[in-house]
Amino acid sequence: MSKTKIIKDLIIKTKKIDWQSIKDLQPLSLKNDYNSGKLRESIINNGFTRAIYVWDSGKDIFCVDGHLRMDILKELVADDIKIPEKLNCTFLDLKSRKHAVKVLLEVFNTKTNPINKGSLDDWFEFEDLSFDDDFDITFDDLHLDFEKEEKKEPEKGALNTITITFDNPEDLQEAETGLVEVLSDYGAKWKIK
Question: pLDDT tens for residues 154-164?
Answer without folding.
Answer: 565 556 667 77
